[in-house]
Design goal:
Number of strands: 12
Strand order of the largest sheet: 6-9-10-3-11-12
CATH class of the largest domain: Mainly Alpha
Number of domains: 2
Helix content: 55-70%
Number of helices: 20
Length: 584
């Protein structure tokens, strides 16, 4: 998308938004037709009032006046029904469009690379998906079609004025209109830039609040309350200033409209009254209708300030949302191969860094056999978790290739691959809901199956101790459970998936002593009969591993059984000695 730069930007954004209205083009066309009908009907009202006034002044029969007023009442009733239909259609159209747009946006986010989420604040994405998408609905409900209707009504009213009244009277009355057009164009340009700034500040505000609420424990722990409050005050002040700049444009534009409207009516009364007094073909009814026409002409012009507000906010929001939806380079590459996993994994000459100039792995090679339990150890920053991210396709190596069951990873369908590989992480994420919801990931599963799995893992006693058992309510991020308890639920969740490949990424590093025996039995049960990769800090938890891979300096330093590596008296032996020293 281009930056905000005028007509080309507006046209590009409108085309992008309107493509989501294509499924509802009949409704869109009908709403557009209603605006045309309403614009045409608007001219009849002043003319009927003119005839009623002239009939009354001429002392014609009261029946003629009553008939005119009855027609006028019927016209108002029809206009009211059409207006109701129009606003109902446009609002429904807006909601239909943002429903489709949100679904596509969220689907696109689900397919983005993990690296995108690493560098994008959560609050910014929430703003795009919720707030910005909602603003787009206003383009249809209160913006595009309504502005078209207003401009069409203005054109019809101007045409009716020149066809119905003396052209000289019309020109005198509307002689200030060019000033109005200049003011309107200035206002449009002014709010275009100010609303871009407003949406930027809304995203920054949401990102800041989301991050601080998520990390509130850290804020309290380090006594950062006053400092964070001061930072929030500064961000909020920037948001306020951005809004004030847009308000300043309104504060100038609206009085200009009111002043020019009053001047037009004054000119009509002055010149039309002079002509009427001189008996120069202008009646009292003409003068009354002229004033009504001018009021009707300026009414949409007054509302254009709000319409432009709505449209520009929607355009800016649309630009942000469409940039995400049209983002191609952030999409995960995905293959088509989908088959049952056997669990054979091979890393061939892998080089990778989160930043190209800071490699984490360099020329890394490792083979994991189907059904094998491989423990991965090494110092912090050696690339243990990076290895897991590469295997699951969250990141792509800069060099080399990963093979799964003899097929390059890039050729695998990522959804198929990940559905067969369970990941238990150190930082366990739990959803708001029951224990049952979290271990089944909201999939329907009989309770007896869950209890059977828990029993086979040695976790039944743990679940029975929870108030309500499987119905125990887990609050957001699992705050009602200890770190060890959350970890146990993640073990049970992985076991219920019954995956051919299991990955434990530092899953036993934060276990308290009360739950350590449960974790030990759960780990053994989980890794039995499947390809398992166990990334571990606590070396005591990997004694059952078939092989142990030691990572260091961006590569594979050592690989073998516990006894073999101890005999080498190398890096692994150093880690064991350090672990023993720390334990004592």
């Amino acid at each position: 998308m281009a930056q905000v730069s005028g007509k080309s930007f507006d046209a590009q954004i409108l085309r992008g938004v309107l493509r989501y209205a294509k499924p509802y083009r009949k409704t869109f066309a009908l709403a557009g037709a209603l605006t045309v009908v309403l614009g045409l009907l608007s001219t009849a009202r002043p003319l009927l009032i003119r005839d009623a006034v002239d009939a009354a002044v001429a002392a014609e029969s009261a029946g003629d006046v009553h008939r005119i007023l009855l027609v006028l009442f019927g016209l108002l009733l029809v206009e009211g029904l059409l207006q109701w239909s129009f606003y109902r259609m446009t609002n429904r159209l807006g909601q239909w469009v943002i429903r489709d747009l949100r679904v596509q946006l969220f689907d696109r986010l689900l397919r983005f690379k993990m690296s995108y989420f690493d560098r994008t604040p959560v609050g910014t994405l929430v703003t795009r998906t919720v707030s910005d998408a909602e603003t787009i609905a206003d383009i249809f409900a209160e913006g595009l079609l309504v502005i078209f209707g207003d401009f069409f009504k203005i054109a019809v009213l101007l045409l009716a004025l020149f066809l119905t009244f003396d052209p000289t009277l019309v020109l005198v009355s509307l002689s200030v209109i060019p000033i109005l057009f200049v003011a309107t164009r200035w206002f449009q340009k002014s709010i275009q830039s100010s609303f871009t700034d407003v949406r930027n500040q809304v995203a920054a505000l949401n990102a800041f609040v989301q991050e601080r609420i998520t990390g509130m424990a850290l804020v309290h722990l380090f006594g950062r309350e006053k400092a964070e409050a001061a930072r929030f005050e500064a961000i909020n002040a920037t948001h306020r200033d951005a809004n004030i700049r847009s308000i300043w444009s309104f504060s100038l534009f609206l009085p200009i409209i009111e002043l020019l409207s009053a001047v037009s009516i004054g000119l009509a009364v002055w010149y039309g009254g002079y002509r009427a007094a001189a008996g120069d073909g202008v009646t009292l009814g003409d003068l009354t209708a002229m004033i009504l026409f001018i009021n009707m002409l300026y009414r949409p012009l007054r509302q254009l300030a709000d319409r432009f507000n709505t449209l520009q906010m929607g355009m800016v929001a649309s630009d942000r949302v469409l940039k995400l939806i049209d983002q191609k380079e952030e999409l995960e590459p995905n293959g088509t191969h989908a088959a049952p996993l056997r669990g054979g994994i091979e890393f061939r000459n892998i080089s990778f860094g989160y930043r190209p100039d800071e490699p984490v792995l360099r020329g890394f090679n490792l083979t994991i056999l189907p059904g094998e339990t491989l423990a991965v150890v090494g110092p912090t920053g050696a690339g243990k978790s990076t290895l897991i991210g590469l295997l699951l396709g969250h990141y792509e190596p800069q060099e080399g290739e990963i093979w799964v069951d003899g097929i390059p990873l890039r050729e695998w369908d990522k959804a198929s691959l990940r559905s067969q590989a369970a990941l238990v992480m150190q930082d366990v994420f739990l959803f708001s809901g029951t224990v049952r919801d979290n271990v089944t990931l909201f999939e329907p599963l009989p309770d007896d199956v869950i209890w059977k799995a828990a029993t086979s893992m040695g976790l039944a006693e743990f679940l029975q101790k929870l108030p309500g058992g499987l119905d125990f309510q887990v609050q957001e991020r699992g705050n009602t459970l200890s770190t060890g308890q959350r970890q146990l639920l993640s073990f049970l969740r992985a076991f219920l998936l019954n995956p051919p490949v299991l990955v434990l990424d530092e899953a036993t590093s934060n276990i308290d002593s009360e739950t350590e025996r449960w974790v030990q039995s759960a780990t053994v049960a989980l890794t039995r009969g499947r390809t398992s990769i166990v990334v571990a800090h606590r070396l005591a938890t990997i004694s059952h591993a078939d092989r142990i891979a030691v990572l260091a300096d961006g590569g594979l330093a050592e690989c073998g059984t516990h006894a073999e590596l101890q005999a080498l008296n190398g890096r692994y032996a150093e880690l064991v000695r350090a672990s023993f020293t720390n334990a004592h």
